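Exercise 7. Given the components listed, write out the predicted structure of the assembled complex. Treat all entries as one system.
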Amino acid sequence: MLSLALTLLGLLLVTFIIGRVMPIDPVLKVVGDRASQAQYEAAYQAMGLDKPLVVQFFGYIGDVLTGNFGRSISTGQLVIDDIRHVFPATLELATLGTLIGVSIGVPLGVIAAARRGGIIDQVARVVALVGYSMPIFWLGLMGLLVFYGILGWVGGPGRQGIIFDGMVPSVTGLILVDSLIAGDWAAFRDAFSHIILPASLLGYFSLAYISRMTRSFMLEQLGAEYITTARVKGLSEGAVIWRHAFRNISIPLVTVIALSFGSLLEGSVLTEIIFSWPGLGQYITKSLLAGDMSAVLGGTIVVGVCFIALNLLSDLLYRVLDPRSK
Amino acid sequence: MSVTGMTRREWLLSDAPLTRRQARLGALYQGWLTFRANKLAMFGLVILILLIGMAILAPWIAPQSPFAQNLAGRLAPPSAEHWLGTDALGRDILSRLIHGSRITLFIVGTVALIAPIIGLFIGTVAGFAGGWIDQVLMRITDIFLAFPKLILALAFVAALGPSIGNAVLALALTAWPPYARLARAETLTVRNADFIAAARLQGAGPMRLLVRHIWPLCISSLIVRVALDMAGIILSAAGLGFLGLGAQPPMPEWGAMISDGRAYILDFWWVAAMPGLAIFIVSLAFNLLGDGLRDVLDPKGDKS
Amino acid sequence: MKMHLSSRALLLASALALAPAAYAETPADTLVVANDISDIISLDPAQTFEFSGNDVNRNTYDRLVDFDPLDMEAGFKPALAESWKVAEDGMSITFTMREGVTFHSGNPVRAEDAAWSLHRAVKLDKTPAFILTQFGFTADNVEEKITHDGNTLTISLDQPYAQSFVLNCLTAMIASVVDKETVMAHAEGDDLGNTWLNTNEAGSGAFQLAAWRPNEAVQLTAYEDYYQGASDMKRVIVRNVAESSAQRLLLEQGDIDAARNLTPTDVESLSTTEGVRIQDEPRGRILYMGLNQKDELLSNPAVIEAMKHLVNYEGITDSFLKGMFMTHQAFLPAGYLGALEDQPWTYDVEKARQILSDAGIEGGTITTKVRDLREYVDVAQTLQASMAEAGLTLNIEQMTGAQVLDAYRAREVPIFLGEWGPDYSDPNTNAATFAYNPDNSDEAMATGLLAWRNAYAVPDSMNEATVAATLEQDSDKRAQMYQDIQRQYQAEAPIIPLFQRIENTGLRQNVQNWNAGGSVTSVMYHQVTKGE
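Answer.
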C-alpha cells in the first residue's frame, strides 16, 4: 500500500510539474481573450498561482486527501463531478471492448496454437498483424461511415440517441447497466447500438494483442514435457489443451488481459474523439490543452490508480503463483 | 582456417565449428535461413528496403514538388497526372508520401534507438540489483507507465514546443517503460541461473555480469519487441501529428496528412486513405519483420 | 480485416434485430442541435463570454432592448423595456419597464432587477464588464449612475454618447436582466451569486435551462409564461459534437435538426442531400492578418503593402474556405453600421515582388505561431507558399488556441492569423480594438486591444476619430465617420482584415425560421418552428 501511495504521489508530482512548465496559461482560459490586465491579475491571484510551487503542490495534496479535487476551469464544475461523469463512459467502453477482445481472442489464440500452421493459425496471424498496423481513427471513421452512415445498423456518435438523453436515472453511470436497472429496454438497445461500434473497434485491437499472447503462451506449454506425458497417457487432445495447457497459462493470461484493459482505459483518446464519446481520455486531453490542471490532476489520479492497481495485481499473481521468481 | 573441400555454406552449417567465429557466423547464418524461409517476414523486409530506398532517392523519384500548391486542382481523385490524387491545397499526394517517408523513418529510427536503450538499462539494473534500487526504479517506471501515453507525449511536446525533434523525444520518453519491465522480467528469470552463478564464481563483477551475460540475453527479446513496437510508434507519431504537435506544416508527415484528410474522408476518401494506407503498409512490414525476427532470435517464442 | 469487422457487426446487428436506426426523426416539438459547445465555462451572464455560453444565455435571459429574430434589419427593439427617452443633454437615458413579465421563478421582472443586474455585472468586473464600464461606471459609482424608481430605470453616462452606441451595448449578454431575489438566495459571501449562476439560470427568457453537462449537452425547456408567448419548440437539446463529419452523418440520418460546425466539403455534400438544406448567414467574425510592428521586417511599409497582395483571396474563398468565409477587407463586418465593402487588394505576387524590390528588400525569414485550427493553418500554408514566391520565408508553428493567445497578448506573434468576433452590436466594438491604441508602450499592457498586441501605434488623428464616432448622434454621419476611418486604415494599418465568417447551418428541411444571430448576436430558438 505504501508503494502504491508513493507511486501515486510521484505521478501527481510529475503531472504537477508538467502543468507548471507548460506554456499554457490557465488564467487566460478563465478570463478570456478580452480581459484587461487588472482582471487578469485578479484571476491569477484567485487561482493561487502567485504562491510558490511547493506550497501549491502540497496544498493540492492536502485538498485531495480531504476529498477536494478542486474545480475545473474549463467546465466550471467540480472536478469530482466531472469525473463521476466521464469515467463511467470510458469504463463502459473499455469493459465491453475487453470482453469482445477476450471472448474472441483467447479461443482464437488457443486454437491457433493447437493447430499450428493451419488455416486458423494463419487467419489469427493476419488478424493480429492487421490489428497492430491499422491507424485506429481511420478505421473508426470508415466504420461510422459504413455502419451508421450507409447501412444505418448502429447508433451514431455519442453514448445515446438524443431523445434518450437524460431519460434513464443515473445509478452507476454505465448507461447499459442503468437502463437495465430502470427496466427500460428501448434505452438499453439504443445505448447498445451506440457503444457496439467503438467497443468492437477497441475490442479488435485488444483481440489482436490477446490472441497473439495466448498463442505464444500456449505454444510454450504445448512444447513442455508434461504435455507429451499427458499425450502418451492417452488423454484426448481437447483435454490436453484445455485441461492441462490452458490451465497453466491462465495466470500470465490474466496479466495480459489486465494490461490490455488498462491500456483501453487510458488509450482510447482518439476513439473517443471520433465517436464523440464523453470519456476520460477526451476530458484529460482537453483539460491539458487548456492548462486546466485541477482537471488533469484529477483525471490522472483516476487513471493512475487503475493502472497501478492492475500492475500490482499482475505482480502479485506472478509472485504468488510463479515459483521461479521467488 | 581451412575451407578446403567445403563450400562456404557447408562451413557455416558445420556441426562441429572449429572456431568461435565460425560458430557465431554459423548461428547467424542459421538464423538467416530460418528468417528467409518465412515468406511473410521476407515480404516485410523487402518493403522496408524499398521504403529506405524511397527515402534516400525522394527528390529524384517524386514526380512533383511536395509543396507546390494548386488551389484550382485541389482534392482531385487519383488520375494519370496525380497517381494518388491531390490534397486540400492541391498538392500531389504521391510526392508528399515519398518525401514523408524520410520523416517517418527518422521518427521511427530515432525512437527505436533511444527508448529500448533507456529501458534496457533501467530494467536490467533494477532486476539485477534488486532491493531498494529495484523498488525505486520500478516505481519510476510505474509512474511513467501509469500515465496515459499519448497524453504524456502531448504534455511533453506542449511544454517543449511543437517540432519533429520534440515529438521524437516525447515518444521516446513515453515508450521506454515497457522495455524496462521486459528487461527486468528477463533479468529476473536468469539472475539465479547456473551460468550466472558460474560466471560469478569465476570472479565477474556486477557490471561485467550485466554487460556480458545479461544484456545479450535481453537484447534479442528487446529487438523483437522493438520491431513489433515500430508500428505503435508510427501510430503514436500520427496521433501527435493529428493533434498538430508533430511535424509542422508544410512538412508531409504521414500522420499529419491523415489528420489533414480527416475533414474530407466522407467525400474525398483518398486524401486520408493514401497516407493511412502508407502507414498501414509500413507498420505491417515492421510487424512482419518483427514476427520473423522473433522466430529467429527469441528461442522461447513460437516458431511457426 | 474489414471482412472480419463487418461479419462481426453483421452478427451483432442481426442479434439486435430491429433495434437501431428506428428513430429517423426527432420529435415534432423538440429541436435538436449539434454544435461544438466545449467552450462553455460559465453560464452567468455577467461572466459568460464564449460563443456557446452566449448562445445559451441569449435564450434563457431577456434584456432591456433586443433584436427581433424575424426582423434583424431593424436593429434593436424594445424588449423588457417598453420604451426609453434620452435626456436633452444626451447624458442619461430613462427606460420604462414592460408590465406583467415574470421570471422563470414566478417573480415579477422589476426595474429594480434590471438596475441590480447592471450593478452586479459592473461590481463582479468579469471579462465582458468593459461593455458597460466604457460608459463611465465603476464599482463605486454604479449605484448612483444606474438608478430605478418605481417602473423606470435611469442610466447616467459620463459623455453624451450616441444613443445607438449605448443601446447596442445593452443588447449584449452582460446586460441580461437577472432575478435578484432568486440569485441572492444563492449568494455565497460577496460573490453576488456568481458561483451558483455559473451552472444555473435565473432569467425570464423564452427557455429555461433544464441541464448543462459540460462537453456533452445543454437542454432547454420552453418557458410557458413567456411574455411574447411560449415557444413552439418545447425542448431544445444542444448536443456537443465536435466533428463535422459526425454532425453531417447525424443530420443525414435525421437524428438532429441542425448542424452548426460543418466544413465546406460537408456543406457541399449536404446541399444535394434530400431532406436537408443549408442556411448561410454572415456572422460578425473577421479573419485578419496582424503584422507585429516590433518585427523589423514587418514594420517596413513596403512589406505591409506587399503582404496585402500575397493573400490569395479568391483562391481561398473558392476552395478550402468556400462558403465559410467571404473576402472582406475592412474591420467592420457586413451587417454593422458603417460597414465598408471596398476591396482594394487583389492577389498579385508579381506586384508584391515589385514592391519589395523597389524598397530594396531581398528576402527575409519570419517564424510565426498559428492556432491549430484547420482553416487558419490552411490559410497560413497558402500564405507561406505565396510569400516563398515573393522571396520571403515563413515558418509555421502550430499551437493550441490558448498558447497562441498567450503569446499574442505578450506581443510575441510576428504574423497573427485568426479571427476577431465583435463583443456587441455597435461598430465601436471593432473600431475600439483595431483602430484605437492611445499608448503603444509595453508598460501600457493594453492586452485587450488588437492594435496594441500588434504594436501598432495608431496615429493620434485616428484615435481621436474613433472616440468622436461614439459621440455622434446622427446615425448617417456616424456611419460615414466609420467608413472614413476604415479607408485610412486600409491605406496604412499593418493589421489587414481578410475575410468575414459565414455560418453554414445544415438544417432538416422542416425546420423554419432558424436564426444563428446574424453578425450581431447569438442564436435564437424562440421563433423556430417545425413544419411537415
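Discussion: The mean pLDDT of chain A is 82. Residues 85-277 of chain A form a domain with the MetI-like fold fold (CATH 1.10.3720.10).
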